[in-house]
């Protein structure tokens, strides 16, 4: 009864949000598409981070995480949900992406990238990336669900053999996402490390979402046998990758600051001046300082309440990170108004609806995995 | 001292028996509990009630100290003691400090974790742990589980502890004794030798340094004084012409100066004075005029200075009709190029200074040849 109530509230939220989104489409295309790309990337990166986590566990044949693996498996379904959103986002190219305009080729910096930045190749890359992710999803997640029924241990071998290839595929596709959807908003800009930067945020977002859902399921007794030792590993992962994200983000900034090349620094100039300055400071505090210092003590990494807070904060900070990269191209300073609110309501409600549907798929643990017992017996 | 008992060991057959025994004995005997097992047993530290390791806190504090000291050192060296502008960045830039802060933080934290654990908590150098003399050691490293009650500052009540352990199910009891002193080569002795050697090295280093500095009998280091180089105003065999100094490459232009391209007064006639007639420009012109021009032309530029008689030269009277009719550009051309006996002043005056002098000369000409109309027509009060 309560379940259906929540579903109804979410559906109503999605409908109300959709109305706002439609109103936003009518009132201004640029802001609409900026919001669209921001939210589609936000949910996509959560899903991709979870898919990466699943692949990583297969790659290193991790045992401790077997009882938790169904959670990132289900969450990576967000990639499927976002595939049509990515195809729709192709309509934003003439509105937001300056390199689609023929006169942009007069700029030698953009003309030199014309072989990469053209609409047919861009669309081809979008489709190829989605294809690669769906392939990974079918092999890892589809195979795992099938193993629930068939109890076939050969799935573990197949997944482990496929994992290294998927890692390469994942590295390339995440870089393509960063270069295409984020970097090419300002096509004159160069940053080789942006793909790694987006990966750091992606993995953190996936971990945070996984942690939240694991704690949610544990509180409802749906993960029997999973204890603080398993949660501690998730907390440790979160802790480590806050530092990784900051390391990569600061490396990019420091090198550009030092070299002071006009085709690089203008990107930071746009994103540090005016109200963006305090926003960057907030990003550093929320994305690094708060989670880092909160997670330092040993107990904090397995304590559900503190971990819930940190994981929620990480998701919000990841959103802020994407917002900071995308919204300055509108040239209007930080925008927070009814369009942003409608998009938030719509995408969060839709994502949660999708997730609720996913959480009902299959058992809560990979019941057919031969290493499930060993995973449950894991102690630090 | 004699051979004081270090601990009383009770041997058990399984991890479960050991855990039960810990629960039975804990709090009932005087002494510190410890366990020796062939493999790590989960939950053991909670059962024994071992205190949390202080290493984490030590590392955190030392890491913070590392970050702060790195930042303070960088701010002082780069911003206060020896400010160097690098790549046009402000000397107080925080950005390049961050990697060094990060590294020093990691360095302090790692050293604290490693050395703090070894020397503060594990009390190294520690040659002979009493347990190494225990007869049960071969069993404990194979299949027995030992619970030890160790002396914790006071003497052990061996009889009471033995009966408590036996009551808790111990299969065998062993009293482990403190080992006999090692003789001269003790940990203390080694530490003292190491400290002595360190102090001797420091002393030798300082003695050498001050000895060389205060008594320069021989010069071990000449601090780069003796090196092949070209000195200004000195002969040198390095170049064929025997000069150490070089002439500038033809066509070299000094920074901040526009090269002079006029070929004669005809070219210069049309040239206007680029500077405004302001007080500062006239002041600059006066300064330059008094320094370079007034020596021959006189302070009033009328060609009558005291030097003229001594040399028998006849410098131009700039107040004459002829020079009053010169255009600004023609005067400028004379300053740069020279005229008759007057040399060029292009090496002494910058372009701006030349034009300032032109302004000043014009002011003098106007002052010494004033018209009635220059006097304001106002009735005296």
Can you give a write-up of this model?
- The complex is a heterodimer of chains A (380) and B (381).
- Chain A is an all-alpha fold and 380 residues long.
- Chain A has one domain (20-376).
- Helices cover 74% and strands 0% of the residues of chain A.
- Chain A is built from 15 helices and no strands.
- In chain A, α2 (29-59) packs antiparallel against α4 and α2 (29-59) runs antiparallel to α8.
- The longest helix of chain A is centred in the middle third of the chain and has 32 residues, at 119-150.
- In chain A, 39% of the residues are buried.
- Chain B is α+β, with helices and mostly antiparallel strands and 381 residues long.
- Chain B has two domains: 5-177, no CATH class; 265-370, Cytochrome Bc1 Complex, Chain D, domain 2 (Orthogonal Bundle), CATH 1.10.760.
- Chain B has 13 helices and four strands.
- Chain B has helices at residues 15-25, 44-48, 55-81, 97-121, 137-140, 158-167, 187-214, 265-268, 279-297, 307-311, 321-324, 328-337, 351-368; strands at residues 5-12, 32-36, 145-150, 172-177.
- In chain B, α3 runs antiparallel to α4 (97-121), α9 packs across α13 (351-368) and α12 (328-337) packs across α13 (351-368).
- The relative contact order of chain B is 0.10.
- At the A-B interface, α10 of A face loops of B.
Radius of gyration of chain A: 21 Å
Please report the number of helical segments of chain A. Answer: 15
Q: Any idea how many domains of chain A?
A: 1
Largest interface, C-beta within 8 A: A-B, 10 and 10 residues
Counting DSSP E segments of at least 2 residues, the number of strands of chain B comes to 4
Q: What does the overall shape of chain A look like? A: globular
**Oligomerization state:** heterodimer
- Taken together, the total number of domains of chain B comes to 2
Beta percentage of chain B is: 5-15%
Secondary-structure content class of chain B:
alpha+beta
